[in-house]
């Protein structure tokens, strides 16, 4: 059993692949073995999470996920615990494995109750796993609501009930805000839906058990990003070794966004950083950051530079975009640049032509910006973030960074997208997106391949928030930018 952390780098498998892996594993083992292993693993984690629990409530559903719950109940009872099982199903319609486990729970003396206990020290959600086919209703929905209203930790078996294991969508399922601590023990494969959209909030800390069935010929649907390797600088390097970044943005009243991106690029290690402001009346120097070379946006020669375009650009960014798209050696497009491209077919054609000319581009939309670029709604984007990121990447010939809980980084169709696990709600403050754009710009300027540049910068950006000291003042975008080297 392994706890998944932001440093974990491994493949994620969709439901169809997981089913094939499960069938192959079950065929190679004596009957009922997988479910016994799954139940034992649940019982072990339950005992570790609540070693002194008097009451453990296990809510079991009508399929094999419920079977894992019965099996865990039997194992816990054998070890002296007093699990209380509530069963939302019909005994005579259970699949064979689950039916055998129900009998084992009865034989072990497990208590079956018609109603959940009023309180417990641990609740185990074994209602629905990868066989969930519609939002939980009536009894199941009621039990889930009660479970998440309790202060006790919740341990989800395989998948939080009602969560789509492929997409992380659980918009119709009662998984209310962060009340109780959440854990999820998932089997055989790690599923992408545990790590993006509503998946992270619903699952909490994820544990993985391969049930002794390691090794698979299946192709992953996505991968976890994992921590980037350190990149030591050679002694003989100089500022030219790390490239030039030009931030283009900062229309009237919005210079701060461009300065934040510039500061982030600087602290992330760019050799030189120019800030080309769209507001011609802006101050000629940033006294707090004199390293930033302030220019008029229209005067910069971008042919040897990485441009970071759009931060605080407002409507004025439209006028400079044709030249930026045509001339920037490498490019990060954010915010207002993305909004301008979304409504302009000529700019879209120009963007797509960059890939054919061998000029790398990374785009960093949040879900609403992504929706504008794909001509759909933010709800559509959130319903399948992996697919949306892939569509962005292939339609525009770019590396797409779809921001949000479980940021997705996608590149074309040949590479599986990557899901990033760093970051937290501290980043939900103005300017943090500008900082990310600047960090990606610095990595591109240092000649990192675009997919790697995006993956590494996204990981580091979130890691700063994850390691921000608990008692320290709130994380601001300026402070985030100053930590961009971490
Ligand atoms: N078969 C095996 O040997 C193993 C199965 N495993 C477990 O089995 C799970 C998959 O089992 P199943 O394929 O039986 O699927 P589930 O147990 O996830 O659920 C399928 C059942 O729930 C019903 N259902 C779906 N959505 C519902 C809803 N909203 N309201 C009410 N009923 C609903 C379906 O009609 C079906 O009866 C995995 O997630 C995992 O927990 C693991 O124990 C590994 C081994
Ligand atoms: K479950």
TrEMBL record:
<comment type="similarity">
    <text>Belongs to the NnrE/AIBP family.</text>
</comment>
<dbReference type="Pfam" id="PF01256">
    <property type="entry name" value="Carb_kinase"/>
</dbReference>
<keyword id="KW-0547">Nucleotide-binding</keyword>
<feature type="binding site">
    <location>
        <position position="366"/>
    </location>
    <ligand>
        <name>(6S)-NADPHX</name>
    </ligand>
</feature>
<feature type="binding site">
    <location>
        <position position="125"/>
    </location>
    <ligand>
        <name>K(+)</name>
    </ligand>
</feature>
<dbReference type="InterPro" id="IPR036652">
    <property type="entry name" value="YjeF_N_dom_sf"/>
</dbReference>
<dbReference type="InterPro" id="IPR000631">
    <property type="entry name" value="CARKD"/>
</dbReference>
<keyword id="KW-0413">Isomerase</keyword>
<dbReference type="InterPro" id="IPR004443">
    <property type="entry name" value="YjeF_N_dom"/>
</dbReference>
<keyword id="KW-0520">NAD</keyword>
<comment type="function">
    <text>Bifunctional enzyme that catalyzes the epimerization of the S- and R-forms of NAD(P)HX and the dehydration of the S-form of NAD(P)HX at the expense of ADP, which is converted to AMP. This allows the repair of both epimers of NAD(P)HX, a damaged form of NAD(P)H that is a result of enzymatic or heat-dependent hydration.</text>
</comment>
<feature type="binding site">
    <location>
        <position position="161"/>
    </location>
    <ligand>
        <name>K(+)</name>
    </ligand>
</feature>
<keyword id="KW-0067">ATP-binding</keyword>
<feature type="binding site">
    <location>
        <begin position="129"/>
        <end position="135"/>
    </location>
    <ligand>
        <name>(6S)-NADPHX</name>
    </ligand>
</feature>
<dbReference type="InterPro" id="IPR030677">
    <property type="entry name" value="Nnr"/>
</dbReference>
<keyword id="KW-0456">Lyase</keyword>
<feature type="domain" description="YjeF C-terminal">
    <location>
        <begin position="222"/>
        <end position="486"/>
    </location>
</feature>
<keyword id="KW-0521">NADP</keyword>
<feature type="binding site">
    <location>
        <position position="65"/>
    </location>
    <ligand>
        <name>K(+)</name>
    </ligand>
</feature>
<feature type="binding site">
    <location>
        <position position="158"/>
    </location>
    <ligand>
        <name>(6S)-NADPHX</name>
    </ligand>
</feature>
<keyword id="KW-0511">Multifunctional enzyme</keyword>
<dbReference type="InterPro" id="IPR017953">
    <property type="entry name" value="Carbohydrate_kinase_pred_CS"/>
</dbReference>
<feature type="binding site">
    <location>
        <begin position="64"/>
        <end position="68"/>
    </location>
    <ligand>
        <name>(6S)-NADPHX</name>
    </ligand>
</feature>
<comment type="function">
    <text>Catalyzes the dehydration of the S-form of NAD(P)HX at the expense of ADP, which is converted to AMP. Together with NAD(P)HX epimerase, which catalyzes the epimerization of the S- and R-forms, the enzyme allows the repair of both epimers of NAD(P)HX, a damaged form of NAD(P)H that is a result of enzymatic or heat-dependent hydration.</text>
</comment>
<keyword id="KW-0479">Metal-binding</keyword>
<feature type="binding site">
    <location>
        <position position="434"/>
    </location>
    <ligand>
        <name>(6S)-NADPHX</name>
    </ligand>
</feature>
<feature type="binding site">
    <location>
        <position position="312"/>
    </location>
    <ligand>
        <name>(6S)-NADPHX</name>
    </ligand>
</feature>
<feature type="binding site">
    <location>
        <position position="257"/>
    </location>
    <ligand>
        <name>(6S)-NADPHX</name>
    </ligand>
</feature>
<feature type="binding site">
    <location>
        <position position="433"/>
    </location>
    <ligand>
        <name>AMP</name>
    </ligand>
</feature>
<keyword id="KW-0630">Potassium</keyword>
<dbReference type="InterPro" id="IPR029056">
    <property type="entry name" value="Ribokinase-like"/>
</dbReference>
<dbReference type="Pfam" id="PF03853">
    <property type="entry name" value="YjeF_N"/>
</dbReference>
<feature type="binding site">
    <location>
        <begin position="403"/>
        <end position="407"/>
    </location>
    <ligand>
        <name>AMP</name>
    </ligand>
</feature>
<comment type="subunit">
    <text>Homotetramer.</text>
</comment>
<comment type="similarity">
    <text>In the N-terminal section; belongs to the NnrE/AIBP family.</text>
</comment>
<feature type="domain" description="YjeF N-terminal">
    <location>
        <begin position="18"/>
        <end position="219"/>
    </location>
</feature>
<protein>
    <recommendedName>
        <fullName>Bifunctional NAD(P)H-hydrate repair enzyme</fullName>
        <ecNumber>4.2.1.136</ecNumber>
        <ecNumber>5.1.99.6</ecNumber>
    </recommendedName>
</protein>
């Amino acid at each position: 059993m392994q706890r998944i952390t932001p440093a974990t780098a491994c493949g994620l498998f969709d439901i169809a692949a997981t089913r094939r892996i499960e069938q192959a594993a079950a065929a190679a083992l004596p009957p009922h073995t997988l479910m016994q292993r799954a139940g034992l693993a649940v019982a072990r984690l339950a005992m570790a999470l609540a070693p002194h629990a008097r009451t453990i409530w296990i809510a079991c559903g009508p399929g094999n996920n419920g079977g894992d719950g019965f099996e865990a109940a039997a194992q816990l009872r054998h070890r002296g615990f007093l699990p209380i099982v509530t069963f939302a199903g019909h005994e005579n319609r259970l699949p064979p494995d689950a039916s055998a486990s129900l009998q084992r729970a009865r034989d072990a003396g497990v208590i079956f109750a018609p109603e959940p206990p009023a309180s417990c020290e641990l609740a185990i959600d074994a209602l629905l796993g990868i066989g969930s086919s519609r939002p939980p209703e009536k009894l199941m929905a009621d039990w889930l609501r009660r479970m998440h209203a309790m202060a006790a930790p919740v341990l989800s078996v395989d998948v939080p009930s009602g969560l789509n294991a492929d997409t992380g969508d659980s918009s119709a399922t009662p998984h209310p805000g962060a009340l109780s601590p959440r854990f999820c023990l998932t089997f055989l494969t790690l599923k992408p839906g545990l790590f993006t959209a509503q998946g992270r909030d619903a699952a909490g800390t994820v544990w993985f058990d391969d049930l002794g069935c390691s090794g698979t010929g299946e192709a992953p649907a996505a991968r976890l990003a994992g921590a980037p390797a350190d990149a030591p600088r050679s002694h003989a390097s100089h500022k030219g070794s790390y490239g030039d970044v030009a931030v283009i943005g900062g229309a009237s009243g919005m210079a701060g966004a461009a300065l934040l991106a510039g500061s982030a690029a600087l602290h992330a290690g760019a050799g030189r950083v120019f800030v080309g402001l769209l507001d011609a009346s802006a101050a000629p120097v940033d006294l707090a950051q004199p390293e930033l070379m302030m220019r008029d946006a229209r005067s910069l020669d971008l042919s040897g530079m990485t441009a970071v375009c759009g931060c605080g650009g407002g409507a004025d960014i439209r006028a400079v975009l044709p030249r930026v798209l045509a001339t920037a050696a490498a490019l990060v497009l954010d915010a207002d640049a993305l909004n301008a491209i979304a409504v302009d077919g000529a700019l879209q054609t120009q963007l797509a032509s960059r890939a054919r000319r061998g000029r790398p581009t990374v785009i960093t939309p949040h879900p609403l910006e992504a929706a504008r670029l794909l001509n759909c709604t933010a709800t559509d984007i959130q319903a399948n973030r992996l697919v949306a990121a892939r569509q962005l990447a292939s339609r525009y010939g770019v590396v797409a960074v779809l921001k949000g809980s479980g940021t997705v980084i996608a590149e074309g169709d040949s590479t599986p997208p990557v899901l990033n696990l760093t970051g937290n709600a501290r980043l939900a403050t103005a300017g943090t997106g500008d900082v990310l754009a600047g960090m990606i710009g610095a990595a591109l300027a240092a000649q990192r391949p675009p997919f790697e540049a995006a993956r590494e910068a996204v990981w580091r950006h979130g890691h700063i928030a994850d390691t921000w000291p608990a008692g320290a003042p709130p994380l601001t975008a300026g402070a985030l930018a100053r930590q961009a080297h971490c």
